[in-house]
Amino acid sequence: xxxxxxxxxxxxxxxxxxxxxxxxxxxxxxxxxxxxxxxxxxxxxxxxxxxxxxxxxxxxxxxxxxxxxxxxxxxxxxxxxxxxxxxxxxxxxxxxxxxxxxxxxxxxxxxxxxxxxxxxxxxxxxxxxxxxxxxxxxxxxxxxxxxxxxxxxxxxxxxxxxxxxxxxxxxxxxxxxxxxxxxxxxxxxxxxxxxxxxxxxxxxx
Amino acid sequence: xxxxxxxxxxxxxxxxxxxxxxxxxxxxxxxxxxxxxxxxxxxxxxxxxxxxxxxxxxxxxxxxxxxxxxxxxxxxxxxxxxxxxxxxxxxxxxxxxxxxxxxxxxxxxxxxxxxxxxxxxxxxxxxxxxxxxxxxxxxxxxxxxxxxxxxxxxxxxxxxxxxxxxxxxxxxxxxxxxxxxxxxxxxxxxxxxxxxxxxxxxxxx
Amino acid sequence: xxxxxxxxxxxxxxxxxxxxxxxxxxxxxxxxxxxxxxxxxxxxxxxxxxxxxxxxxxxxxxxxxxxxxxxxxxxxxxxxxxxxxxxxxxxxxxxxxxxxxxxxxxxxxxxxxxxxxxxxxxxxxxxxxxxxxxxxxxxxxxxxxxxxxxxxxxxxxxxxxxxxxxxxxxxxxxxxxxxxxxxxxxxxxxxxxxxxxxxxxxxxx
Amino acid sequence: xxxxxxxxxxxxxxxxxxxxxxxxxxxxxxxxxxxxxxxxxxxxxxxxxxxxxxxxxxxxxxxxxxxxxxxxxxxxxxxxxxxxxxxxxxxxxxxxxxxxxxxxxxxxxxxxxxxxxxxxxxxxxxxxxxxxxxxxxxxxxxxxxxxxxxxxxxxxxxxxxxxxxxxxxxxxxxxxxxxxxxxxxxxxxxxxxxxxxxxxxxxxx
DNA sequence: GATGAATGAGGATTCATTCAT
DNA sequence: AATGAATGAATCCTCATTCAT
Lengths: 205, 205, 205, 205
Fold this sequence. Notes:
Four copies of one chain form a homotetramer.
Chain A: H1 11-32, H2 39-46, H3 50-56, H4 60-83, H5 89-105, H6 108-115, H7 122-129, H8 131-149, H9 159-179, H10 190-201
The structure holds a DNA duplex.
C-alpha cells in the first residue's frame, strides 16, 4: 500500500508501537504505581525511546486516561455484544457479573491499574465515575428496573441503589482478589456472587 | 487544673499541635492528593513550621499511615461500644451500616482520604486491608454467621462473601457520595442500605 | 565560696561543663567530621542540652576554633617549658620532635581533628598557619639558625625552609599514624625522626 | 575529519562537556570548599544544566573522587614517563621533587582541592593514602633503597621513613605556597628542596 | 517518524540556632 | 544558668518533557 521508498512504518508496526506503549504503561503502573512510574521505564518496557511516547500520547497522565478509556470502551462493547440476545433480567445480571469478574480477573496488572492507580486523585476518580462507568451503572439499573417491572425482582428497592450495590460488591471482589496472595481464579466466584445478588433481589414466595 | 507556673507546653498544647498537624494533613491530602500535597502546605494548614512536623512524625508517609490507623482504631472502638449491648444480628448489622455511613459522611475530607488517598499504591491498599479492616470484616462475618445459626438469615450464603459484599456496598456508597456534587447527607441512606442488605439476607417465607 | 542558696553551679561545675563540651566536640568531630557533626550529638556527648552549648560558645564553628586555639596554646606552653633549660640546638630539636609526636600520639581523636577537620576549608587552613603555628615554625627556625651560627648545623640550608621541612615531616608522620590501622605508639618514632632530621642537618666531616 | 552529517554530539563535544564539569568542580570546590559548594554553582561554572551533571557523575561526592583519581593517575603516568630513562637515584629524586612542585604549582585551584578539600574526612583521607598515593610513596622508597644499595645514600635511614619524610616536606611546601599571599612560582623551590633532601641523604665524607 | 541527551523546576528533609519558660 | 521545642532557610537530586539531529 505504501509505495514510499525508505522506512515506511507499515500501518501495523505503528499500531503495535502504540499498543506496546500502552501495555508497557499498564505493567509499569501496576508495578510501581502511577506517581512512582517513570516514563523512561515505560519506554523501556515498550522497547521505544523516551521521546517516542510523546509522539503517541500527551504525557504520563494521558497514558493513564487512555488506558482507562480504551479498556472501558472495549469492556462495554463486549458486554453489550454478549447481552444483545438476552432479555431475561436474571440472565442479564449473571452475564454482567461474570463478565466483570472475567475481564479484570484475566489480567492482574490491568486490575491493579483499575482498582488502585485510577483512584489516585479526585480528578481520576471523577473520570472513573463519569461517562463509561455511568453508562455501565445505567445498564445495571435498567436491568434491575425491568426485572422489577416483570415481577421477577422484589420491588421496593431503589434500582439506582441496587445498581451501585452490585457495582460495589463486584469492585470489592476484584480488589480483594487483586490483593490476595492466593492465586484463585476470580471468575470462579461469578456464580456465587450472582446467587448472592439474585437471592437478594428475588421475590419472597 | 495545673497550678504550676513554668512547666511549659502543657500536655494539651503538645497534643493539640499533633492533632492540628494531622488535621492539616487530612485537609491537604483531600484537597491536593497525597503525591501532590506539599509538606509545607500541611505545615501552613496546621499553623506550624515545616520542621515541626518532623518532631511529631517521620515524614509525609507516616502522616498518611497515622491518619489511617488512628481513625480506624477510633472507628472500631466506637462501633464496638455501640454494639456491646446489642446481640440481635439484624440490629447489629443496622448499627454497623449506619455507623460506617455516619463516620465518613460527617467529614468529607476524611472520606476523601479514606476512599482515594489511602489507595494510592498497592502498599497502602494492603495496609488498608490488613489488621483493622480485617477485624472489621470479621465482625461483619461473625454477625452474619450468628444470624444464620439463629435461623434469622438465609443459609447457603458464604458468610465471608456476604461480609465482603456488605463492605463493598458501603464503600461504594461512600465513594459515590464523596464524588457527588449534590450535598445529600450520607447517613440518610443508612436505612435504605440496611433494608437492601437485610432483605437480601432474609429467609424467604 | 558561693553562699547563694539555690543551684549555684560551683566554679568547677561550670568549668567542667565547658570542658565537657569541648571534649564532646573533639570526639564527635573526629567521629563524624566537622560538617556532618550535629550540634545535638555534641550536646549529648557532653551531657548538656543543645542550647547550653550556645551559652559557652558562639556556635559550631567557634567550637572548632576554640579546640584549635586552646590545644595549640597548651602545646606551645608545655613545649616552651620543656625547652626553657635547654640551649643545645640538637637537644632542642629532639625535644620538639618528641613533643610533637607525643602530644598528638596520645589522643587519636584530637589528632584527627588536627590533621583532618581543621583543614576543612581555606579559612581554617589559614587559621592553622597563622599565629600559633607561625610561632611554632619560628621556634624551629630560630633553633636551626642558632645551630648554624654555632657551627653545629650545616650552613647553606635556608632556616625557614628547614623549619617547614621539619614541620612537614612531623605532620606526615602524624597523619600516617592516624590513618594507619596498626596501633603503634607514635612517639616511638621520635628518635628515628630526630636522627633523620639531625643527620640531614649535620656538618659533614 | 568526520564527514558524517547527523551523528550528533561528536565524541569531543561529549568529552568536553565532561571535562568542563570536572573543571567547574575544581574551581568551585577550591573557591567554596566541598561542603559549601553547591551543585548548581558547579553546573553554572561548567555551562550546563544542573541535571546534566548527573548524566556524567553519580553526584557531588563522585566529582571529588573523580578529580582525585584522574589527576593522580595523570600525575603518576607523566612522572613515570619522565623517569623512564633515568636510573641515577639522585637525578630520579630531583625529577620527582620538581614534578610534584610543578604539577600542583601550575594550578592553584587544583592545589587547593588536593591540599584542602580532599582531606575533608577520614574517608577521603584514606582514599588519598591508598592506591595511587601508596604507589607514589613506593616509587620514592625504591629510589631511596637503590641509592643506598649503590652507596650513594647514607645507609641507616629507614627507606620507608625517608619516603614519607620527602612526601611530608613536599606536601608542606605545596600547602605553604597555596596559603601564601605572595605569588611566587612554586617550582622555583624545586632545587632548594632537592638540595635539602639530597644533602640529608648524602654520605658524609 | 524516532531518538535520547539535555533541561531545570520543584520539594522533602535536615539541623544550627533561638528563646520562652 | 539551663532547657529543648520550635523554627525555617537551604540544597541535592529526580524525572517529565523537549527538540536538534
